[in-house]
């Protein structure tokens, strides 16, 4: 069965100065060490040190407010449009003047999921997802924005995207072989179907799907439902249940603000295991 929990139900612990951390995924949650996920509430004038072990992968996404990330790669001001990949051995600090919320994820020992990881360690990278290309579902009004791919981050150990569900949209029932993954709801509410059982979900919910867990989503609300999802490892097989329509994605030629995107992604489907080279 999937694990579904809201961050409000998780006890917080203090780390750093005026920073509260809630553990959403660890070995007690999933009984494995594929990925770790936590929600950081960085209070006004809060700060916390960040260090990445040599064989680990770490990325963080700013959910709200603003932070300053400093370290060996310089100092960067980040807001809720940013996702940051921190390379092996990174040491730095997160600070916030007015406060911020951060989603912080770690894959321990990434060499398990990417044999080339030790030879070609990914570098520091900041992604502004608002300039990334938007793709439209060929079946409905859903939208997709890639946030973590081998081309963007240089590793196949993880992959991830943002999916936007306008009101009334619904995906096809499916499951994955070769990877486990989680979704985190950044906006809105809806229904998550797991093994055909419905679960009401809302902003701040984390849904963890084990391998072969059948699942799909429906937005039954009047507002957009938005989530980010990340897979470990980053390449896997997607199996569609009972001949459900395969999700196909068509380029819009625009970013989420309607402007020129940072790059071009051609039309493709979610069926192939290999990530398309232009993604």
Structural write-up:
The chain has 279 residues and is mostly beta strands. It folds into two domains: 3-129, Jelly Rolls, CATH 2.60.120; 130-269, Jelly Rolls, CATH 2.60.120.10. It has helices spanning 27-30, 150-153; strands at residues 3-6, 13-15, 17-25, 36-51, 57-65, 67-71, 74-78, 82-86, 91-96, 100-107, 125-128, 135-137, 143-148, 159-165, 174-177, 180-187, 189-194, 197-202, 205-209, 215-218, 225-232, 237-240, 248-251, 268-269. The radius of gyration is 18 Å and the shape is globular. 38% of the residues are buried.
For the record, give the distance between the C-alpha atoms at the N and C termini, rounded to a whole number.
31 Å
CATH top level of the largest domain is Mainly Beta
* Poorly predicted regions: none
| CATH topology descriptor of the largest domain | Jelly Rolls
Q: Share of helix among residues?
A: under 10%
Which geometry do the CA atoms define? globular
**Total number of domains:** 2
What letter string, H or E per element, gives the SSE order?
EEEHEEEEEEEEEEHEEEEEEEEEEE
Report strand %: over 45%
Computed structural class = mainly beta
CATH architecture of the largest domain: Sandwich
Largest sheet properties: 10 strands, antiparallel
């Amino acid at each position: 069965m999937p694990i579904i929990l809201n961050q409000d139900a998780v006890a917080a612990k203090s780390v750093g100065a005026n920073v509260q951390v809630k553990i959403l995924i660890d070995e007690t949650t999933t009984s494995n060490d594929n990925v770790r996920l936590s929600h950081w509430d960085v209070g006004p004038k809060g700060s916390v040190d960040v260090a990445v072990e040599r064989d680990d992968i770490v990325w963080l996404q700013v959910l709200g407010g603003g932070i300053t990330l400093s370290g060996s790669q310089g100092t960067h001001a980040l807001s809720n449009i940013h996702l940051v990949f921190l390379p092996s051995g990174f040491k730095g600090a997160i600070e916030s003047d007015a406060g911020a919320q951060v989603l912080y994820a770690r894959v321990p020992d990434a060499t398990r999921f990417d044999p080339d990881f030790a030879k070609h360690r990914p570098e520091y990278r900041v992604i502004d997802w608002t300039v990334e290309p938007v793709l439209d579902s060929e079946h409905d009004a859903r939208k997709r924005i890639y946030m973590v791919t081998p081309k963007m981050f240089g590793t196949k150990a993880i992959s991830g995207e943002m999916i936007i569900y306008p009101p009334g949209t619904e995906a096809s029932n499916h499951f994955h072989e070769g990877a486990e993954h989680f979704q985190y709801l950044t906006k809105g509410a809806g229904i998550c179907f797991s093994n055909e059982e419905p679960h009401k979900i809302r902003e701040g919910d984390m849904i963890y799907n084990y391998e072969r867990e059948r699942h799909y989503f429906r937005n039954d609300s009047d507002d957009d439902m938005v989530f980010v999802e990340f897979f470990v490892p980053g390449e896997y097989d997607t199996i569609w249940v009972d001949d459900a329509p395969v999700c196909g994605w068509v380029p819009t030629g625009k970013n989420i603000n309607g402007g020129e995107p940072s790059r071009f992604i051609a039309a493709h489907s979610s069926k192939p295991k290999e990530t398309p080279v232009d993604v």
